[in-house]
Amino acid sequence: MSDAETSARHLLDLCRRAERIGSWQFSAFLTLAEQDEFALSPLSDGLPYHFWGGTEWAERKILATGDAELSGPPDYPLVPVRVSPVSARFAEELEHRDFLGALMNLGISRNLLGDLYVRDHQAVFFCLDAIADYLLSSLTSVRRTPVTASAVSPEDELLQPIFREICFTVASERLDAIVAGFASLSRGQAAQLFPASRVLVNGRVETSPSGKLKPGDILTVRGTGKAIYQGITRETRKGRLLVSLKQYA
């Protein structure tokens, strides 16, 4: 049985358990691909569930399954955490991988953590409440920088992503054309990214340069960044298509 099938069956078991005991059940954090795998599975037809990651922009989400009429609104087992240097003046230039690496070094599995945003030497993310106390007391440094971890409000400003709108023209809606414009590459250079597994759509590695994006799809080009595809805004007089994306800053 594949990992995807195992994950789908586990989520199905959660849905059945929620129906059986009449209370909300929650999964660990799921990637976009895992969410998609379950949503498209015939096993999920007719089951009461939804995905939530702490904010409407979240990619990594937990599955919540239950009946609000019987059990009331769900009490999501999520805790928002902010990690800040003890002294911003002497902090290193910390990046996403530095914060994530420090969390992994504590023995925390990636599926216990949601999206992680980094800005101004700080990181903020949601974690499952089961590990919150351990994380808050144990995370004291990132690389060589002393840090403090504290629970914050779900409305914390760092949890609100910053987007930069970018527009460019393409000859067609083919994915390799969009990737080339997004990464400022030629079509030939963009095509080489696909066999190298550097292009992802909604969390899945995309191997077909001829695919097309739908508005709302999340495009990731490793080494360039991540953006939400907005779609075609208009056609130019020369017949080219002007496309718009919201890039995560």
Which secondary structure elements does this structure contain, and how are they paired or packed?
Layout: H1 3-21, E1 25-30, H2 32-40, E2 49-52, E3 61-65, H3 68-71, E4 78-85, H4 96-105, E5 113-119, E6 122-128, H5 129-138, E7 141-142, E8 145-151, E9 163-170, H6 175-183, H7 187-191, E10 199-201, E11 204-205, E12 218-221, E13 225-235, E14 241-248
Antiparallel strand pairs: 1-3, 2-3, 4-6, 4-8, 5-6, 7-8, 9-14, 10-11, 10-12, 12-13, 13-14
Question: Main attributes?
Answer:
Alpha-Beta Plaits, 33% strand, 14 strands, 27% helix, alpha+beta, Structural Genomics Hypothetical 15.5 Kd Protein In mrcA-pckA Intergenic Region, Chain A, five-stranded antiparallel beta sheet, globular, 249 residues, six-stranded antiparallel beta sheet, 3 domains
Description of the molecule:
There is one protein chain. This protein is of the alpha+beta class and 249 residues long. It folds into 3 domains: 3-71; 78-159, RRM (RNA recognition motif) domain (Alpha-Beta Plaits), CATH 3.30.70.330; 163-248, Roll (Structural Genomics Hypothetical 15.5 Kd Protein In mrcA-pckA Intergenic Region, Chain A). The chain contains 7 helices and 14 strands. It has a 6-stranded antiparallel sheet, with helices on one face. It has a 5-stranded antiparallel sheet with strand order 5-6-4-8-7. β13 and β14 (241-248) form a beta hairpin. The protein is globular, with a radius of gyration of 20 Å.
CATH class of the largest domain: Alpha Beta
Number of E strands: 14
Shape by Cα distribution: globular
Number of helices: 7
Strands in their spatial order, largest beta sheet: 9-14-13-12-10-11
What is the CA–CA distance across the termini?
39 Å
Average pLDDT taken over every residue: 92
* Number of domains as seen in the coordinates: 3
